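Re: that chain you flagged

S.,

Sorry for the slow reply, it's been a week of failed gels. I finally had a moment to sit down with the sequence you sent. For the record, here it is as I used it:
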Amino acid sequence: MGKGIGGGVPLAALLCTDAVACFEPGDQGGTYNGNPLMCAVGVSVIQQLTAPGFLDEVIAKGAYLKSRLLEMSDEFGLDGERGEGLLRALKLGRDIANELVEEARIMAPIGLIINAPRPNLLRFMPALTVSRSEIDQMLAMLKQLLRHSPK
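Prediction finished late last night. Pasting the structure tokens below so you have them in one place:
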């Protein structure tokens, strides 16, 4: 496993039972192996994830994002939303996602980076530490884009 375990710092881990382990500690080397800095970051990430209330707040922010995307879907006549937690997608109902991605990127004054894995779908993957005000800011920018999108 990797990516999130290092909070942006290159770090990975291999988890398995003794019955299937093919490595002894220290056998595997590579860029994502733990050096003191990477391991300190990994420990900090795990401490944050297991802090009392942290994951409850992540779940609450995921529910908030879901409800706001559903409101937006109703407002603009889209096809709803889907996802789990903070990993969500807005179903557009028409193939305008790529245009929205480009328009979002160049929005004044700051731009918005969104992802379109399909021509009719926008995907959102905010950090677990995203604030509700940051979610609201992203949604306000997205509404602005949808108001000016082709029908």
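What I noticed first: The mean pLDDT is 91.

Talk soon,
D.
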